[in-house]
Specification:
CATH superfamily of the largest domain: Protein of unknown function (DUF541), domain 2
CATH architecture of the largest domain: 2-Layer Sandwich
Strand order of the largest sheet: 3-4-2-5
Largest sheet: 4 strands, antiparallel
Shape: elongated
Length: 234
């Protein structure tokens, strides 16, 4: 009976010792790198920010003139092929115009009129029609143009190319570092898309021979970053 108790005690004490040995195992040597890549593509869509700014003696007159002018611009945009779903009000404002303060006569500022502004965001789904769309808008009342951005209707395929290239770049960087350290790469321990991807970067120029409004889309660059952790094999 005493021998049985001794054996049982020995077995119970062996378990914590085994757990301690496992906890003391060295961590797996590893290396973490980030690969980056950018892919250029020709944009097939554009978004234009344009609008109408009007000035009048009263707030009502400024807003009425602005509304009439913008309505005409919208009609011309639709006639140029822009669908209603591609027209969106970006901003609407009405502000008084103040005269400067005269310190010599101690006269306060006064309102000399009002400025109304209504800005539209216009999506052009065919880049080739962008010049004609701008011409139609400016000819019929639009007097402010705040910029043009180019984009892709379906950016996923281009982004996937950038992600693949970024993964290959990460592998190349890891192999370079491993060779310099005199070790080899083992299995992939983790992989993640770090930092997201950069949005389209418009690069465009004017062409004096184009008509009616000279605009060239050029190319846009979509980028990706991938972080990969490899096991190091001695």
């Amino acid at each position: 009976m005493r021998k049985l108790k001794t054996l049982m005690l020995t077995t119970v004490l062996a378990l914590p010792l085994a757990g301690t040995a496992m906890a003391q195992q060295a961590p797996v040597p590893q290396i973490t790198v980030t690969g980056e890549a950018s892919v250029q593509a020709v944009p097939d869509m554009a978004t234009v920010s344009l609008g109408v700014t009007t000035v009048a003696a009263t707030a009502a007159e400024a807003m009425a003139a602005n509304t009439a002018a913008l309505a005409q611009v919208i009609e011309q945009l639709k006639a140029a092929g822009i669908e209603p779903r591609d027209l969106q009000t970006a901003s609407l404002s009405l502000n008084p115009n103040w005269t400067g303060y005269d310190s010599s006569s101690n006269q306060p500022q006064t309102i000399t009129g009002y400025t109304a502004s209504n800005q539209l965001s216009v999506r052009v789904r065919e880049v080739g029609k962008l010049g004609a769309v701008l011409d139609a808008a400016i000819t019929d009342g639009a007097n402010t143009l705040n910029g043009i951005s180019f984009e892709l209707a379906s950016p996923r395929p281009v982004l996937d190319q950038a992600r693949k290239a970024a993964t290959e770049d990460a592998r190349a960087r890891a192999e370079l570092l491993a060779a310099a350290a005199g070790v080899k790469l083992g299995r992939v321990l983790s992989i993640s898309e770090g930092g997201g991807y950069g949005g389209p970067m418009p690069m465009f120029k004017a062409d004096a021979a184009s008509a009616p409004v000279p605009v060239e889309a050029g190319e846009i660059g979509l980028s990706a970053a991938v972080t990969v952790t490899y096991e190091i094999v001695q």
